[in-house]
Amino acid sequence: MTQPTNTTGWTREQMAQRLAQDIPNGSYVNLGIGIPELVAKFVPEGRTLIYHTENGLLGMGPSPAEGQGDPELINAGKRHVTANPGAAFFHHADSFSMIRGGHIDLCVLGAMQVSKDGDLANWSTGEPDAIPAVGGAMDLVAGVKSVYVITQHCTKTGDPKLVDSCTYPLTGRGVINRIYTDLAVIDVTPDGFRLVELSPGVEFEYVQQRTGAPLLPIQ
Amino acid sequence: MTQPTNTTGWTREQMAQRLAQDIPNGSYVNLGIGIPELVAKFVPEGRTLIYHTENGLLGMGPSPAEGQGDPELINAGKRHVTANPGAAFFHHADSFSMIRGGHIDLCVLGAMQVSKDGDLANWSTGEPDAIPAVGGAMDLVAGVKSVYVITQHCTKTGDPKLVDSCTYPLTGRGVINRIYTDLAVIDVTPDGFRLVELSPGVEFEYVQQRTGAPLLPIQ
Amino acid sequence: MINKQVQSPAKAVEDIFDGATVMIGGFGEAGSPIELIHALIDQGAKGLTVVSNNCGSGEVGLAALLKAQRVAKVVCSFPRTANSTVFPDLYHSGKIELELVPQGTLAERIRAGGAGIPAFFTPAAVGTPLAECKESRVFDGKEFVMERGLKADFALIKGKLADTHGNVVYNKTARNFGPIMAMGSKVAIVQVERVVEPGEIDPEIVVTPGIFTDRVVEVANPAHESALVAAGVCYP
Amino acid sequence: MINKQVQSPAKAVEDIFDGATVMIGGFGEAGSPIELIHALIDQGAKGLTVVSNNCGSGEVGLAALLKAQRVAKVVCSFPRTANSTVFPDLYHSGKIELELVPQGTLAERIRAGGAGIPAFFTPAAVGTPLAECKESRVFDGKEFVMERGLKADFALIKGKLADTHGNVVYNKTARNFGPIMAMGSKVAIVQVERVVEPGEIDPEIVVTPGIFTDRVVEVANPAHESALVAAGVCYP
User: Fold this and answer.
1) Which chain A residues are closer than 8 Å to C210 by Cβ?
2) Do D24 and D155 meet the contact criterion of CB atoms below 8 Å apart?
3) What ipTM did this prediction achieve?
4) Phi, psi dihedral angles at B153 (to 5 degrees)
5) Which residue in the set D91, D178, D226 is minimally distant from A71, CB to CB?
């Protein structure tokens, strides 16, 4: 299973763009750090999403111009952001009430591994010398209505990230609804991974070979 | 034990005045409906108390002038009040966090019965045709640091309100610290009722006769 | 474009269904969403479970909803009111069920429901009839009773001002149960005196962030329960 | 007359004792009460348990307190930081204990501590290593883990403006853990840019009511952690 990183399929931007198509107008959305953040750039014209950042802001806007940032107006990744008209600030217990209470429609996260049962591992390699740090990931996957993963289909060493069962410590059990990779869009169903869409030029078998559990065909 | 209502001892105002002497400057205080409300009138010069009303106001001020009331600025008794400088409004979960979390220094309540163990009954006669209604009394007695009762020593029919054990349904168990009656100030101690002070002209035996459990002398 | 404003109380409550659980804000008359309640009476839904601190007064607002026998059960801390015989009459004739809950427990159960907390422990009511049949447990030497989070299908709430994203601010002690009922309900319906554009409410002073609000409706001059009762009004 | 204002950060933290549990506000640098932390370093208390979302950056503020080896244990959701080796070094050399808590659970535990809730159930961390050895329970077919309320002896918080009664408002996302840490601590110490008289803050916009605040201290121009780190400052 160790092979060079594939050069076929969607770029990171295209993955984000593909995911953005699937978010309905008016959704309350929490975007994780990294590739998930790119999603905001590709929301189709005419749709308004409201972004939640768990450190206490609903209605988060884009990054300010260079040098215009306020060190007390940041996102969960600790980057300077802005507040859109209609924004609200609140404290951490209220912010996680939004998350845990199922008020946020969609959360987009990166992943180290996703299992065919929807288990997610994205916070720790479990290595003994790693500094454990979890942040809000466990709360997000446990509480948000839909949880999408956006990730390269395989690791840098070519190992599948979509697996039969996670070997890394879990972030949550049975929490992932859908996965967007460079190769495909894949749903997590009661029957396991099911293909929703292939990226242009990519074939089913190619994806199956790079997936660590059976991939059901498009339904 | 049935005898005419005694005419000896403190009036309601004097009871409230006596209690008011015992509240330190800067205390956060919740006053129940009825005689407890009178306490605010007798706070000694130079002391500032901050009044909490459980319907969402800290820094409650006196009633407004007749006709000046705002139907959306009321106290727990649903009477028009005012907000002092330094007041704050908040919602019910925050308000009862103040109560349950032990942030309020003192609560003053009326009573139907108080037992020698500090049990309080003040919300229901337990009669089958009564409409049960509890409000915030159970939260107050369970959460506030000190809970004082202010009440006539006996019922209108002359029965003692300070009893060995309550016959009415409880509001809380072992929650009362001190009782102010028309006849005396009495502490609830691990050994039972203990006299703190007699009202002028009232003798120990007179109070003991009207108390449904042993009364320990002033210590 | 997000716009949660609806054009009338009638429109705002049109999908409340028979048997729904409805949280109704207010402590006494402060914060009682009278116009929304009257619209609900007109709409006709019945067999409702109502979660509210009180049971209204006179024969307007919540008391009128009860009087019209649309409510099968109330979850309430203080159903007794000086100026109403509506609840007592229904209760004594066995036409309404009452779940009596200490006020702070009621508030916390509603918040918990909205915060995804299925259960929590509280010291309130321990040793009293209201804790009978409830699980209790000792933490650090003190006894607590377990209470469950409470959720509703709808909430009817009275605010002061809202924007079209559903951010709400309240008026004085009319705030009371509004913010937590917005959290604890699937569909939170808020009447306010004025609906403004996003950006007109300072994000620092928003009390109910829009994520908790589903519909806002303008009632420019809301009635006060005490004034209606004093005038002898019976709704409808 | 009530006046919670104290004249200096040094005075505000003078009674923090060895072994105390101290909640420290802030998410990253936003809301980090740097001047209070520096005063605590100067004061010398050691063996502290610190409850804070992060572990600071560079060698100022919270990172400097850790570096000075005053902290025996941190209760934290995300102790890793791009710009600091302080926590990793202490952790790897076994000089500090870490209780890792999911961020929302940390927030709710602090609020629960302040609200008199000894324990509650949350779905977060179920099925993960962070729920191992914790009691779990099924409600309505879903599994939850029981978490305990968290209380502290002191809290160090950064607000924007306060009055002498201790009412506080915050600045943007610097609000984060401040309001709940004020609730969850016995002695809440708040630094603000300006202390005003009661009445100067609208009671409708107060975020932390004075009952939760014990001391307020003016720090007119608070330092920003990122600026100190960029300038290579090491405290003390």
Assistant:
1) 50, 58-59, 86, 88
2) yes
3) 0.97
4) -65, -35
5) D226
Question: Would you name the residues of B annotated as active-site residues?
Answer: 54
Query: What residue in B sits closest to C142 (Cα-Cα)?
Result: B142
Q: Which CATH number fits domain B12-216: 2.60.120.10, 3.40.1080.10, 1.20.1730.10, 3.40.190.10?
A: 3.40.1080.10
Amino acid identity of residue D11, one-letter, is K
Find how far residue D175's CA is from the centre of its chain. Answer: 11
For the stretch B88-147, pLDDT in tens is 999 999 999 999 999 999 999 999 999 999 999 999 988 888 899 999 999 999 999 999
Asked whether the beta carbons of C12 and C36 are under 8 A apart, the reply is: yes
User: Encoding tokens for residue C62?
Assistant: 């919540």
Each residue's pLDDT tens digit, B37-91 = 999 999 999 999 999 999 999 999 999 999 899 999 999 999 999 999 999 999 9
**Mean pLDDT computed over every residue of chain C:** 97
Token readout for A158 is 């070519």
Distance from CA of C220 to the nearest CA of A (A): 21
Residues of A in contact with D175 (CB under 8 A): 56, 89-91
Q: Within 10 Å of residue B27's Cβ, how many Cβ atoms?
A: 19
pLDDT in tens, B2-21: 444 446 799 999 999 999 99
Give, for B61, the enclosing helix (H) or strand (E).
Answer: strand B57-61
Q: How far apart are CA A2 and CA A18, in angstroms?
A: 27
Structure tokens at B100: 């349950």
Q: Which residues of C touch D144 (CB under 8 A)?
A: 118-119
List of chain D residues whose C-beta atoms are within 8 Å of the C-beta of residue C117: 108, 120-122
Residue B209 is predicted with a pLDDT of: 97
Q: What is the pLDDT of residue D83?
A: 76
pLDDT classification of A200: cutoffs 50, 70, 90: very high
pLDDT at B166: 98
Q: Which residues of chain D have pLDDT under 50?
A: none
Are D191 and D35 in contact by the 8 Å Cβ rule? The answer is: yes
Contact indicator for B53, B140 with CB cutoff of 8 Å: no
Record the tokens describing residue A110, joined without a space.
Answer: 């990166």
- CA–CA separation, C74 and C77 (whole Å): 10
Residue-level pLDDT at A7: 60
Tokens of C219: 């009632």
Q: Report the CATH superfamily, name and number, of domain D5-120+151-230.
A: Glutaconate Coenzyme A-transferase (3.40.1080.10)
Residue D114 region by backbone torsions, left for phi larger than 0, else alpha for psi between -120 and 50, else beta: alpha
Per-residue pLDDT, averaged over C192-219, amounts to 98
pTM for the whole thing? 0.97
* H helix intervals, chain D: 9-12, 34-43, 61-67, 86-92, 103-115, 178-184, 225-230
- Annotated domain spans of chain B: 12-216
Q: Is A154 helix (H, G, I), strand (E, B) or coil?
A: strand
A-B interface (Cβ pairs under 8 Å ≥ 3): no
If you average pLDDT over residues B174-200, what whole number do you get?
Answer: 98
CA neighbours within 13 Å on the CB side: how many for B163?
Answer: 19
At residue B7, the pLDDT reads: 60
**Which B positions 110-149 lie with beta carbon below 8 A of chain C?**
119, 124, 129, 131-139, 142-143
In the stretch 51-70 of chain B, residues with CB closer than 8 A to chain D read 52, 57-59
By the 8 A CB rule, do C149 and C113 touch? yes
The reply to whether residue B132 touches residue C224, judged by beta carbons under 8 angstroms, is no
